[in-house]
Design brief:
Layout (H helix, E strand, L loop, with lengths): L3 E5 L1 H18 L5 E11 L2 H9 L1 H6 L3 E4 L4 E8 L7 H15 L9 H12 L9 H13 L13 E5 H7 L5
Antiparallel strand pairs: 1-5, 2-4, 3-4
Helix pairs in contact: 1-5, 1-6, 4-5
Amino acid sequence: NAKGLILVDMHAAHERIGYEALKKQFHARQVPKQSLLIPKCMQFVHQDIALIEQYQEVLEQMGIEIALLGEDQVAIHAIPALVKESDLSDVITALVHDLSQYGKSGSLDQYYNEMLSTISCHGAIRANRSLTIPEMNQLLRDMEQTERSMQCNHGRPTFVEMDLKTLDSLFLRGR
């Protein structure tokens, strides 16, 4: 821009955008889902199955439809649309881990945001993915419209700015 150069961490920025949108959808009970043509079966230890069963309604509110298949197996029928391109096993395993951590406190309500953060992290653009010019522009426009877009869910900056003086000094100009 006229002041210098802005470098954007596309993963961190996309993660924050997804997180803020997901929070609003979650509280409105309108998380967009992606139904799976073939349900994904996963195995868990008994304690994790108990957690899934206990928090099944919360998971559904987050866009995850799970059916219990027995003492150690579940079938995933739908996932949040945000993570449709992600490794489903990683997402579900991370959420079950969150449940095991946060469910112990007896007050999962205060941890919903951490679970939504897990989902948005898994759904964010990954490193080494080349964005098209329209995708880059959309990411920047979305950042402009998103609360707290200056940092990702983990507190890292989503962009850095370098003024012209700093850029010139990199190339030994102005000496």
